[in-house]
Amino acid sequence: MSSNLTSTYSLGDVADVYDGPHATPRKLEQGDAIFLSISSLEQGRLNLEQSSYISEDDYIKWTRRVTPQPGDVVFSYETKIGQASIIPEGLRCCLGRRMGLLRAKRNKVIPDFLLYAYLSPAFQEVIREKTIHGSTTDRLSIKEMPSFKIQIPDVRKQNEIIKILKSIDDKLEINQQVNKTLEQMAQALFKSWFVDFEPVKAKMAVLEAGGSQEEATLAAMTAISGKDADALAVFEREHPEQCAELKATAELFPSAMQESELGEIPEGWRTENVENIINRLKVKNTFPADCIKQFGQHPVLEQGAKIYQGYHDEEPSFNASLQSPMFIFGDHTCVMHLSTVPFDISKNTLVLKGKGFNTYWTFFALKGKQKFQEYKRHWSDLKVKQVVIPDESNGFLLTKYFASKCESLFGLLEQNRKQNMNLQNIRDTLLPKLLSGEITLPEAEQAVSEAENV
Question: pTM for the full model?
Fold first, then answer.
């Protein structure tokens, strides 16, 4: 053992390695057990938003090889190679295809540290060296994984390092939750205006009860702002310009509904195929997995991703001169992601922008109204779906106002993404320095504090 109390082991010496099932059960929208997929693995965390459920009979069948337990480290050995996460308390789940599991030998390694060691630059380099490059996809040999070399210090040192890295992970999780809330706010606003048509219905209710057009506009202002009449009066006295803007927005909504192929929609609005409201951008080239790394100058979005999955240091291939925002559509997963900064893509992703209407509105029209990710199909299915289109005068102004709200929300969201990238970089560069003794615990704590305040 070296003087810094860190040793190099074979992975099989510190953990048992299990393979998951090689097939996919029938997925359910609700159930008692979650079917994990490799898309659930995001930068060391489990994202269960896109997960499906399985029946009790399938759960028994699909956990014959191994039943995930709290503290187990799950990983992908195909497609999203290098990604891993840890099973939390209370999660009843089974492994999906192309997923494996590490069960820590707790006399040798603490489960949380096993995850950090797996995600560390040193072990990620081992993974890159051991990756088998196939004609269709890259993979790891799970039978060979027990022989992979991994650096593990003594348990006391593990606990010290976990304390530091956990503080980073806590901040990463907070930023993730804040970003989720910001996107949900934009989604809720879109749903209120362009799906449930709440301002329109508020106007109609007043007019049907014999009220005036002025009272109908006041009702729409209430629906938009969530303020009652008394609160709106105070708002007008204290913020007259903002109140005037609110009133102008309320006046843009129609006061009646009409029938359409998608049911009742606001008067003057129409339905349209998705392919007629988007521009599909031509991409010069995409980045294969072996060109993508954890950190770099330019983000690379992969299909199924909700956040940046990788980076590269080459010149952007196609988007340097394009105006943001843009969004991607995973052709195999139907999951969408909006970005307000330039990016490149991996294979099997389409880059889209709004045509006629701004991209923020177009993104939520596709993602929120029709919920295409539930279909689990491809582009050919998506482009012929129908969405509700506002009229080209007042409705167009509404979509612009909606976009202005999104700009501020996604501006904050992008700041949090950048901070998370910095924190992830700090986390992964601190680990080898702590293992080697190059940096002390107080110095590491100072580095984390500085990163959090950037």
Answer: 0.80
